[in-house]
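Supplementary Methods. Inverse-folding protocol.

Structures were first reduced to a discrete structure-token string of length 239. This string, shown here, constituted the complete conditioning input.
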């Protein structure tokens, strides 16, 4: 008569291999917005364009479309003229927090940064790189946006009155030379960027790459000159 054998117990749960959960795909950042690019930005400020937007093909009618858009932007031009005066006056004091704390102030990002964001949206709408009419404000939702890492450090020497901005301006001379050449190229491209809008109702991908890249580069250079960013801006059309 054989002795009964002990039943074999299943392995502990801790030893059972568990399949890792599936990684969800990138979800849209907002309703109707394209997924965010998982790559980190190369600079602590970015200028983004929603390259998926469509618009009426009538905006691509040569000269007429851009001319009408320019007329619609007249209220923006008026407000931005006075806004620019405020921004210029703020440059007399905005260096103080940089000199004392090594940080550009939050109110500087709100006012000066808001001005740059507003101008960028108006510029993009005028050249057909944006579909939606820009809001009469520094915020709001739009096809174009400009954002900063407001926690970044800025070298305190940049806040030395006159000297800091003067040194930064000298360091930016290579950028200014390249931006001048790019500006000429962008002007010539504006003679044909209306063609894809007229044919397909979309601003061309290559136009976003070159014209949009010019705007990105321009914004990075301007923000560095105004002490809003710490690192030296890269020589790149991308963010």
């Amino acid at each position: 008569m054989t002795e009964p054998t002990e039943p074999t117990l299943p392995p502990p749960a801790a030893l059972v291999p568990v399949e890792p959960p599936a990684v969800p795909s990138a979800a849209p950042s907002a309703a109707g917005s394209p997924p965010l690019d998982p790559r980190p930005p190369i600079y602590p400020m970015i200028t983004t364009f929603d390259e998926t937007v469509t618009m009426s093909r009538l905006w691509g009618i040569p000269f007429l479309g851009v001319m009408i858009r320019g007329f619609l932007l007249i209220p923006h031009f008026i407000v931005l003229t006075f806004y620019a005066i405020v921004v210029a006056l703020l440059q007399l004091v905005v260096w103080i927090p940089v000199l004392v704390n090594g940080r550009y102030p939050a109110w500087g990002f709100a006012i000066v940064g808001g001005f740059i964001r507003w101008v960028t949206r108006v510029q993009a709408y005028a050249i057909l790189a944006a579909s939606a009419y820009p809001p009469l404000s520094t915020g709001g939702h739009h096809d174009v946006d400009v954002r900063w890492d407001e926690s970044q450090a800025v070298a305190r020497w940049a806040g030395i009155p006159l000297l800091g901005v003067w040194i930064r301006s000298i360091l930016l001379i290579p950028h200014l030379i390249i931006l001048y050449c790019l500006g000429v190229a962008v002007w010539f491209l504006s003679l044909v960027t209306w063609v894809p809008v007229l044919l397909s109702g979309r601003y061309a991908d290559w136009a976003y790459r070159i014209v949009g890249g010019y705007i990105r580069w321009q914004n990075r250079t301007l923000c560095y000159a105004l002490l809003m960013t710490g690192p030296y801006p890269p020589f790149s059309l991308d963010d």
